[in-house]
Amino acid sequence: MKILKFGGKSLSNGEGIHKVVDIIEDKVNNGELITVVLSARGKSTDELEAILNKAVRSESYQKQLEVFKQYQVANYPSFNVDDEFETLDKLFEGVSLLGDYSKRIKDQVLSQGEVISAKLLTHILKEKGVNANFTDGRELIKTDGKFGEAEPLDKLSKKNVVDHFRKYNGATVNVVTGFIASNMNNETTTLGRNGSNYTAALLANYLDAEELQNFTHVSGIYTANPDLVPDAKKIEKLSFTEANELAYFGANILHAKTIIPLIEKNIPLRILNTFDHKNKGTLITAENDEKGIKSLSVLENVSLINLEGRGLLGKVGVDARIFKALAYKNISVSIISQGSSERGIGLVVEGDKAIEAKKVLEQEFETDFYKRDVNTITVENNVSVISIIGQDLSTFHRPYNALIKNQVIPLLFNNTISGKNVSLVVYKNQLHKALNVIHGEIFGVSKKINIAIFGHGLVGGTLIYQILKSAKKIEKRKKIDLNIFAVANSKKILLSKNGIDTNWRSDIIEGSSYGIEDLIKFADEHHLENLIAIDNTASKVFVDNYITLVENGFDLVSSNKVANTLGFDFYKELRLKLDEHQKKYFYETNVGAGLPLIDTIKLLHLSGENITRIKGVFSGSLSYLFNTFSKDDRKFSEVLQEAIDKGFTEPDPREDLCGNDVGRKLLILARELDLSNEFTDINIHNLIPENLREGDANKFLERLEELDAVYQNIKDEQKPNHVLRYIGDLHGDLFKEKGILDVKLVSVEESSALGQVKGSDSIFEIYTESYGDQPIVIQGAGAGAAVTARGVFGDILRLTEKG
Question: According to the CATH classification, is domain 2-42+117-285 in 3.90.700.10?
Answer without folding.
Answer: no
